[in-house]
Amino acid sequence: MLDDRSHPTPAALTPGQRDLLQHKIHVAPRALTQSDANVRRRLSSAWSAALRLVAALHGIPEDALHWWARQPRGHILLTAEDEGYSASLRASGDRALAATALVPLHRILAQPDHALKLTLQPLDHLLGCDADPTGAWLSDGGGRTPRWQRVGGHIATLFPLGYGLSDAGINDPHWYWAEGLATALRDRRKLNAADPKLERLLGQSILDDGFWRNFVAEESQDLHNDRK
Questions:
Q1: pLDDT at 223
Q2: 191 CB contacts (<8 Å, ≥6 apart)?
Q3: Taking all residues of the chain, what is their mean pLDDT, rounded to a whole number?
Q4: How many Å apart are CA 33 and CA 35, to the nearest integer?
Q5: DSSP letter string, the chain
Q6: Is the pLDDT of residue 133 over 80?
Q7: Which of 99, 113, 127, 195 has the greatest number of CB atoms lying within 10 Å of its CB?
C-alpha cells in the first residue's frame, strides 16, 4: 500500500527547502524501479522520498538552505542501492555532479536518521573548502572563510574527545559532524546530554540565523568587491 500521504506536500515546505529541492536534489535513473518491492509499494515516485528528505532539514536556517542551493557543488542523488559520498560522478548522460551524497530510497523510508546524515555531508564539504576534492572539510578543521575556520577549528578539537554517538561518529570526523547535526535537528536535548560542547557550537554557528545572515552578507560583499 502506498503511504505517500505521510510525506509533506511541496506547499508545506519552507522557501529554502523548496529551493534546495529544485536545485540540489536529483534522482538516479530507475532509482525507484530498481529498489526493492517494499519501497515500490510505499512510494508512487522517488520525489515522494525527496520531499521527506528535504523536510527533515527543518531547523537549518533559511539563509543556509538558500545559500546551499546556489552553490555549483554539493548535491544529493537519490538511488536504489548506491550509498556514500562522491567528489564527482555522472548522474545521467553527460551531466556531472560535484560533491554529491548518494542516498538510497530505502534509507529514507526505513532509516531516516541515517539518510539525513548522508544528506548533510555535502554541506560539511562546502563549508570547509567550497567542496574542493583535495580540501579540508569543515569537520576536518577547514573553513571557507575565517568565520567558518573558527568553527572548523573547534570541531577539530572536539572530535578526538570521542563523544561521537556511534562507532562511525567516533572514528570519522565527517560522520561525527553529520551525526551531531542530524541529532540536533531531531532532538537537541539528546545531543546536549551526549556532547554538550558540540551542541553549543552547532547552536552558535550552523543552526544560528544571525550567524548565517552575517556570513551571507560578508560573502556578498566580498563578491561585490571582486567584481570591481
A1: 60
A2: 165, 180, 183, 184, 198, 199, 202
A3: 93
A4: 6
A5: ---GGGSPPGGGS-HHHHHHHHHHEEE-TTTTTTS-HHHHHH-SSHHHHHHHHHHTTBTB-HHHHHHHHHSSS-EEEEESS--EEEEEEEEETTEEEEEEEEEEHHHHHH-HHHHHHHHHHHHHHHHHHTT-TTSPPGGGT--SSHHHHHHHHHHHHHGGG---SSHHHHH-HHHHHHHHHHHHHH-HHHHHHH-HHHHHHHHHTTT-HHHHHHHHHHHHHHHHHHH-
A6: yes
A7: 127
Q: Cα–Cα distance between 219 and 175 in angstroms, integer?
A: 27
User: Side chain identity at 162, as an amino acid letter?
Assistant: G
The pLDDT of residue 1 is 45
Which three cell numbers mark 132? 574542493
Between CA 28 and CA 193 the distance in angstroms is 38
